[in-house]
């Protein structure tokens, strides 16, 4: 069975999706020599009437994440747009359905990191990244940020935080990623792949 790091994201306008693909690129830069791939998955929208179900396969883009994708991963990069300083509800809704994994301890001892996109510079990137850590700590995952060893963390004029990669997308969410924002996404992917490789090579730490 292939070993993979899961990149699980929600994105309405596509900016968090761009980050997901860069993080996946970083994962494979570091991970492929070890046989570690990136698997990108998204989650469906949630409707005001929650009994309405989306088709199981989306019309375009990444497949919807299944619990099995999460259960079997060697590591996790979790991405969400910032919504009022918090993660977006479709991602939270998906995470709220992961109790069976929590009960079985399936994610314990696996590494995880977070990434987010905001419209504005001081619009709550860190609070969103911190909010995304809460469910992952309950799952017993090892949380990983970005160290200041990455020069882009000090030189960035827009996104990039020690809590995780971030992207300031502008009022119409169409500002291109800066070089620093891109480099930090790639670096976060590489760091996660390295950690996932090291941790899966040993006895699982509970
Ligand atoms: C309901 C809602 C709440 C938002 N809250 C914030 C916020 O608190 N801070 C901010 O800077 N941007 C906020 N935004 C802007 C988005 O975070 C931004 O457009 C982001 O790039 C969207 O990501 P996406 O392209 O992956 O959907 C909000 C957008 C929406 C729709």
From TrEMBL:
Enzyme class at the top of the EC tree: oxidoreductase
The enzyme's E.C. designation: 1.6.5.2
Start and end residues of each Flavodoxin-like domain: 5-193
Signal peptide: none
Any one GO cellular component localisation term in the record: membrane
InterPro entries reported in the protein's UniProt record: Flavodoxin/NO_synth (IPR008254), Flavodoxin_CS (IPR001226), Flavoprotein-like_sf (IPR029039), Flavoprotein_WrbA-like (IPR010089), FMN_Rdtase-like_dom (IPR005025)
Keywords: Flavoprotein, FMN, Oxidoreductase
Entries under SUPFAM superfamilies matching the protein: Flavoproteins
GO MF, one example: NAD(P)H dehydrogenase (quinone) activity
Cofactor: FMN
Family, per entry: Belongs to the WrbA family.
Protein name (record): NAD(P)H:quinone oxidoreductase
Originating species: Alkanindiges illinoisensis
Gene designation per UniProt: wrbA
């Amino acid at each position: 069975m292939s070993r993979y790091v899961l990149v699980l994201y929600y994105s309405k306008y596509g900016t968090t999706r761009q980050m997901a693909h860069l993080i996946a690129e970083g994962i494979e830069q570091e991970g492929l020599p070890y046989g570690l791939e990136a698997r990108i998955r998204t989650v469906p929208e949630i409707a005001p009437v929650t009994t309405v179900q989306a088709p199981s396969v989306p019309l375009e883009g990444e497949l919807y994440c299944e619990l099995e994708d999460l259960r079997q991963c060697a590591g996790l990069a979790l991405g969400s747009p910032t919504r009022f300083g918090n993660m977006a509800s479709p991602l939270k809704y998906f995470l709220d359905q992961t109790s069976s994994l929590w009960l079985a301890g399936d994610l314990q001892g696996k590494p995880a990191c977070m990434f987010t996109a905001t419209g504005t510079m001081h619009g709550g990137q860190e609070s969103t990244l911190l909010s995304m850590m809460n469910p992952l700590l309950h799952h017993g995952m090892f949380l990983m940020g970005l160290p200041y060893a990455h020069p882009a963390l000090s030189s960035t004029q827009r996104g990039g935080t020690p809590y995780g990669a971030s992207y300031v997308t502008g009022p119409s969410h169409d500002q291109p990623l800066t070089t620093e924002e891109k480099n930090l996404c790639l670096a976060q992917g590489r760091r996660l792949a390295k950690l996932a490789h090291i941790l899966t090579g040993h006895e699982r730490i509970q």
